[in-house]
Structure formats: structure tokens, C-alpha cells
Amino acid sequence: MRTMIRVFAALTMCAALGTVSTFAQDQGKVRITGQALNLSITAGGASQPILIDIDRWSTPKTRTELIESFVKDKQEGLLKTLRDLPTIGEWRFPGYMGPDNDGIYRMGSPIRYAATQPRDEGGQRIIIMTDRVITMKEQFNQPRSMNYPFTLIEMQFDKNGNGAGAFAWFTRLKLDEKKGQLEIENYSSEPVNLKMLKLERRK
């Protein structure tokens, strides 16, 4: 059964894209390592390493463009704007053991949007939004998964760079106008939990 998950309490589009500040843009290159624990029924609690490299941080202008495209043209508009953005990093599963004929998970998937903001208690929160790589086979067969074109990652780190987060791999976005709330529908039964995360600076 598909479940409607709300990432963070009363998530809005602005919260989903984070708050880009001078703090965010001064972070430089970072690498995040950890374990991805898939709690979906089909995965049976499978765990594997995850690696995330961020080379640049998104600007306030980019954030505004993404919000405006979603408000104007909903998911389709947001997806088009996101795909037009340059690659600013990548995420991948080193040593991925599942089927990966196109090398998406082992070799890496591009990151289009990344923002960070300080936490009141110290440390930082990082938000990543990107378009999901669609294989040629998926484009040809047009399965239901084509309606879930986004990948969203949210992570919380303490002042020592240790953290945890959530990884929504196949997602689609819908705005509940009555509640004024962005709803994120995950294709699988559960998002992927990110554990034992470590944030480190890169040169």
C-alpha cells in the first residue's frame, strides 16, 4: 500500500527547499557517508553504505525559481526547472548489490539542489532535492514509477558532524491547497532511513 508521508511537521514548499543563507554558501565542498536502511516490506530491512558529495550550494535565486515553478505549474513545472539546473554534486551506493545495469546506483546520480541551515542547538540541517535518473527501459515501458520523478534527502547533523536523516527515493509532490501543505507521496511503503551519518569537509 502506497503511503502518504509528510517530511517534517506541516511541510510547505519553502521548508522543503530549506533556507539558503550566507552560512549555507560558505560551507564549501562536503562529503557525507553513512548507512541507508530500507524499511519497506519488499526490502526486508536491507542496509548498505551511502555516499553523498556536495560540490556547491544552491543560491537563494535558485530556491525562488523552484518555488515559483511549482506554484505555477505544479510537479511538471518543478521537474522541468530542476532538470535544467547544473549538477552540483552526486549521491551513490558504493558496492550496491542489486540489479544496476545502467550503473545509476554504483556510479552515482546527480544532485541539482542542496541547501543547509544552522540548527538552534548547533550543527546543521541539509536538504537535497533532485530529479531521479530515468533509465531507457523505464522510459520505454512507462511503468507507474514514472509518476515519481523526484529524490528528496533530509539530514540533521550535530556540531561534531554526526547525524541521521531520511531518503525518499521515488517520490511525487502534490499541494493540498485547503491545508496549504505540500504532500510527498513515496512510491515504496516506507522512505529509507539514513543512520550513522558523518559530515566532513572536502578540498
How would you describe this protein?
The chain has 203 residues and is of the alpha+beta class. The chain has one domain. It has 5 helices and 11 strands; from the N terminus they run βααββαβαβββαββββ. Strands 1, 2, 3, 4, 5, 6, 7, 8, 9, 10 and 11 form an 11-stranded antiparallel beta sheet that branches. It is globular, with a radius of gyration of 16 Å. Mean pLDDT is 77; it is low at 1-15 and 39-44.
Which tags fit this structure?
eleven-stranded antiparallel β-sheet; 203 residues; globular; 5 helices; alpha+beta
Topology overview:
Layout: E1 3-5, H1 13-17, H2 22-25, E2 30-38, E3 47-54, H3 60-83, E4 89-92, H4 104-107, E5 109-111, E6 113-118, E7 124-131, H5 136-141, E8 150-157, E9 162-176, E10 181-186, E11 192-201
Antiparallel strand pairs: 1-10, 2-3, 2-11, 3-4, 4-5, 6-7, 7-8, 8-9, 9-10, 9-11
What's the gyration radius in Å? 16 Å
Separate helix tally: 5
Q: Could you tell me the strand content as a percent range?
A: 35-45%
* Overall strand count: 11
Give the rounded overall mean pLDDT: 77
State the low-pLDDT regions, or none. Answer: 1-15, 39-44
How far is the N terminus from the C terminus? 44 Å
Order of helices and strands: EHHEEHEHEEEHEEEE
Tell me the overall shape: globular
Q: Major sheet, described briefly?
A: 11 strands, antiparallel
